[in-house]
Amino acid sequence: MTDAQILNIGFDDTDSPKGMCTTFLAYKIVDLLKKQDTQFLDFPKLIRFNPNIPWKTRGNGAVSLQIKTKNPSKIKNQIKHLVEKYSDIKNGANPGLVFYESETIPKQFTAFSKLALWQLINRKQAKIFAAKNNLEFFYQGNGQGLIGAIGAIGYDFSDHTLELLSYRKNSKFGTKRQLFKQSVKSMQEKTFPHTFNSFDNKKNKILIMPHGPDPVFYGVRGENVNSLLHATKILKTNEKLAGYMIFKSNQGTGDHLKNELDIKNMKPYASGKITGIVSREPKIVEGGHVFFSIRVNDNEIWCAVYKPTGMSSVALGLIQGDKVCVGGGIRKSSKIYPRILNLEFIDVIYLEKNLVNSNPTCQHCNKKMKSKGKNQGYQCIKCNKKSTNKILLETPRTIKKQLYLPNVSAHRHLSRPLQRIGKVNKESKFDESISWFHIYGN
Ligand SMILES: [Zn+2]
Question: Which residues fall inside 5 Å of ion ligand 1, going by CB?
């Protein structure tokens, strides 16, 4: 193409709990652009941002596209129109849309994107950033969507995964989805480890299918295009689907927990990790949740492990003096507790010896001696043998020096699954001959 411009497009917060979905809007935009003289330079990107922000839309995901076009102004108008049409504003969506014409993405975009992954960024900051950096931007509602829209353009992947999202026909929106459980199970067995988090074997539960009114039928996550396409051939449903699109994503990368939290400056809703020594014994509360605290230098932070994560028995197995690296999100202080780190992983680095003071054992009878009273020593009730001091007994530890992760059902979009630990995806290069977008014929 001659005189073609590279156009970056970012949008977010077009959905609401009652319907629609930002990825579906992306699918509609791509469908429209594909019918014109447009060159796609990469997969559409589905970027998940800080999952610990309470007012995020479901999953806090934004989308960006990078294309080459001779007629950017025409395309911008078409996209603006589609964003207006497909945003669920009456149900609380606050869409943001940005355009940036450039082949390269400046460093400050990447920095902004990183902050959105770890912190709470306010809307005003996003508006100031957009104006300062000559972004063309549009928003409705309160403009919350601008943060993700800018962040999605600026995201710098150190690792990535792909997700194939399939969409339903309009007539099926809001109706019950039927996907054969056995086919999902079988798909996972056949495509693992090139796909991930499709089926929870422990709970016998499908993980790839949403339950709400949105247009997504299922989403399969994995490492490369071929595995995803293979997976869709194994999945069985009676429903005729409209089409699918493959996104490049930071899902499953654990990128939101790479940030080192500063214990002296724990901002509410921040995500990240921190290493410290267990300073208060774990306590289990009603509901099966476990609380303990860790110390870093002279500062302490409470940690919470919620029962659905499946990590509460690990937390209960910790003792004072253990060294752990823990990751998660900071919850705002409440009446009962100060700021708490909600854990998304526990990496046990050092296990302290579990020594317990105990009454001495009678060598002769192999029985625990009884105390004779304060400072009176101990005596065997069978043979009357005496001893003066308590002894230290070492109790074996119930946990190991290893990384503990939540149950797959409790994973967040960004959580790095066990099979992806240490992995950097290099399998999925984009070119337009790949079957990354498809509308099914009837
Ligand atoms: Zn005895």
Answer: 362, 364-365, 380, 382-383, 385
